[in-house]
Amino acid sequence: RAKDRGKNNYQLFTPSMNQDAMHRLTMEYQIRQGLENNEFILYYQPRMDLALNKVVSSEALVRWQRDGNRLTMPGDFIPIAEESGLILPLGEWILKKAISQALAWQDQGLKGLKVSVNISSRQFQQKGLANMVAQTLTETGLDPRLLELEITETTMMMDLEKAQRVMEALGRMGVGFAVDDFGMGYSSLYYLKNLPIDCLKIDQSFIRDLSTDPNDTAIVDAIISLCRTLRIHSVAEGVETREQAKYLRQKGCEQIQGYLLGRPMPYHELREMVVNGIKPKL
Ligand code: C2E
Ligand code: MG
Ligand code: MG
Ligand code: MG
To answer: Which protein residue's CA is at the shortest distance from atom 10 of ligand 1?
Structure first.
């Protein structure tokens, strides 16, 4: 690969190089530029507690404002950032930004509003992640209990000893852990019990056809009871309809996130939403 040949050697694109490889190289270069030029922004999607009927948290979701107003979605660059290692500087920027935003909310009268941040596999495996998070929390003064990190089952199971160390170190400080896209990966129930996990986010693919697909209904019911048994919070992702929300509440799911409450939005819109107490009537 061109980048392996040293900084000052540029390799020309050749017709033999397939389009995919070319796209990747271009993207890598642009992501690096984007970081330098501050082109990344965080949107926040509300998460509501069904018992309190209140927005209690929000998930930080990265977007890339490349040219003008067009937003590039994470699906189009996170995988390339992950493969190239650029996820490490990008991920650090995201964490720091989300932490400072959460801190700002506390000062703006949104006391107790939490933030949750997605951590990619490579970022989670990175040496020094726990220290970096701990140091950022100490420097900013954000209450660690207001920060939750989202990792997938696959990430967690990749290196269990490492996962245990990182999660316990940060867990002791008060940082929470959510298992993202739960049900899509392969996790051992044993580890759900033995790692410091605070919440399972039920993957949106199970929520989509909740009212019509009996398999989805059964899976969602099972995950909710599992959460109750293990004393882990349950969150349903991708909730778009009132029917889904009603069903989930009736089954004892604790929180929901999805377009029904709101799409990911700029920080000031989320703030307004929470201040005005806008919420759907369920
Ligand atoms: P995720 O963490 O599972 O995030 C949820 C995704 O579902 C978001 O897509 C969100 O916009 C979308 N979503 C939320 N509610 C609904 C709904 O009601 N219906 C439907 N159809 N979709 C809904 P987004 O923002 O495009 O992010 C996609 C994925 O990219 C995320 O999945 C996450 O894995 C990754 N990602 C996003 N931001 C970051 C980040 O800051 N760091 C890392 N490492 N990954 C990120
Ligand atoms: Mg997530
Ligand atoms: Mg998810
Ligand atoms: Mg995910």
So the answer is: 264
